[in-house]
Each structure stands twice: as C-alpha cells, then as structure tokens.
C-alpha cells in the first residue's frame, strides 16, 4: 500500500519541461557582452507580471548568463536577451477503472476490491476532463547586429497557485539556461 501511495504522490507532482532551438553552426563563443530588451507583453494572467516575479527571473538569468562568460553592458552589447511569460489553460483527460476501485471503493489505495486485483491499479478509460493551468517562460537571445533571434528556450510547468509559480521561477530559469549552447565556466 505504501508503494501505491508513493506512486500517486509522485504522479501528482509536476516537473519542468524544457525545449530549445538555435541557429545551427553558430559560434556562440563570439558573444562577449549582453544586455536586455524589455519583456514581451504576454498573457501571464498576473502570475508573472509583478515585481517579485520579474526580480526572480532577471536575477537568476543574469547569474546564469554571466556564468557562461558574458558580461552585462548597456552600451552596444553583442547579445540582447528578452523573456516572455505566458500562463494558459488546457484540459486533460481523467481516467477511471471499470473495476470500481479508487475513491469510491475504500480510498485511493483500494482496500476493498470485491473483484480481486488487490494492489493493482489500472486506469484504462477516460471518465472526464479537468482544467489545468500551465506556465511558460520563454527566453530568447537576439544578435544585436543582425537583429535576429539566435537562441530560444522555453520552460513549461503546471501551476496551481501564483505564489508557488513565482517561487519556482529561479529553478525554471536555471533549467532554461542549461539549454544555452555555452556551458558554465565554473
């Protein structure tokens, strides 16, 4: 039973997912300085549009960028970074079991199973949909000379409350910056 509880708890925890794209065959070592463009106006539903969220994003991003050998400057930086924060609603299917166990038959661990299958949980058909909210942070690097995006990475996570989402931003930015073509100099 304890193992079943651990699986349920682990399944309920969402993890960050990262995706990246870049200009292929570009030497990112040529960039020595960086600056910031204003954040892109986004649909963040007030999750990431407050001072604390902006501070968490900018402080963590600056640390990560500088660990990759770039120096911040306001005058003619080689790269210009910007971020976009988006929160949107999606729906996902909720699955049930034809055997009637789960919350309706003795709790989530199925203490009472009139048809057997003790310790076995097999969700196998959709019984409805639930609405969930996903937060996305997109970080882009723009070559100042060509004015084109040379790198972009996105971090996505399920968010259930604004405070938890804002407090998780440093971890999200760290994960996004791991996608950057240059590794840390440490």
Shape: elongated
In order across it, which strands form the biggest sheet? 1-6-5-4-2-3
Please give the share of residues in helix: 10-25%
The percentage of residues in β strands lies in 25-35%
The description of the largest β-sheet is:
6 strands, mixed
CATH top level class name of the domain at 16-90 and 134-177:
Alpha Beta
CATH topology (fold) name of the domain at 16-90 and 134-177: Double Stranded RNA Binding Domain
Rg calc: 22 Å
Distance between the termini: 44 Å
Total count of helical runs of at least 4 residues: 4
| Mean pLDDT score | 79
What is the N-to-C order of secondary-structure elements (H for helix, E for strand)? HEEHEEEEHH
Structural class by helix and strand composition: alpha/beta
* Oligomeric state of this protein: single chain
Uncertain stretches: 1-13, 100-105, 115-120
Total beta-strand segments: 6
Named at the architecture level, the CATH assignment of the domain at 16-90 and 134-177 is 2-Layer Sandwich
Q: Could you walk me through the main structural features you see in this protein, from its secondary elements to its overall organization?
A:
The protein is α/β, with parallel strands linked by helices and 186 residues long. The chain has a domain at 16-90 and 134-177: Double Stranded RNA Binding Domain. 23% of the residues lie in helices and 33% in strands. The chain has helices spanning 2-12, 51-67, 162-167, 169-177, and strands at 17-22, 33-36, 71-72, 79-96, 125-143, 148-159. Strands 1-6-5-4-2-3 form a six-stranded mixed β-sheet. Helix 2 (51-67) packs parallel to helix 4 (169-177). The protein is elongated, with a radius of gyration of 22 Å. Residues 1-13, 100-105 and 115-120 have low confidence and may be disordered. Residues 23-181 form the DUF4136 domain. It holds the Pfam family DUF4136. This is DUF4136 domain-containing protein. InterPro entries: DUF4136.
């Amino acid at each position: 039973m304890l193992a079943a509880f651990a699986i349920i708890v682990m399944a309920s925890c969402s993890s960050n997912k990262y995706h990246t794209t870049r200009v292929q065959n570009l030497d990112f070592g040529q960039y020595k300085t960086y600056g910031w463009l204003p954040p892109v106006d986004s649909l963040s539903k007030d999750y990431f549009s407050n001072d604390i969220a902006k501070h968490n994003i900018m402080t963590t991003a600056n640390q990560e960028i500088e660990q990759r050998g770039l120096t911040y400057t306001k005058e003619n930086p080689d790269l210009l970074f910007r971020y976009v924060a988006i929160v949107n609603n999606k729906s996902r299917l909720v699955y049930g079991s034809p055997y009637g166990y789960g919350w309706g038959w003795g709790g989530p661990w199925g203490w009472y199973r009139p048809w057997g299958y003790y310790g076995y949980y097999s969700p196998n058909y959709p019984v409805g949909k639930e609405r969930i909210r996903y937060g996305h942070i997109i970080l882009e690097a723009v070559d100042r000379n060509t004015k084109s995006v040379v790198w972009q990475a996105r971090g996505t996570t399920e968010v259930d409350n604004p405070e938890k989402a804002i407090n998780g931003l440093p971890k999200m930015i760290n994960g996004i910056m791991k996608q950057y073509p240059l590794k840390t100099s440490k």
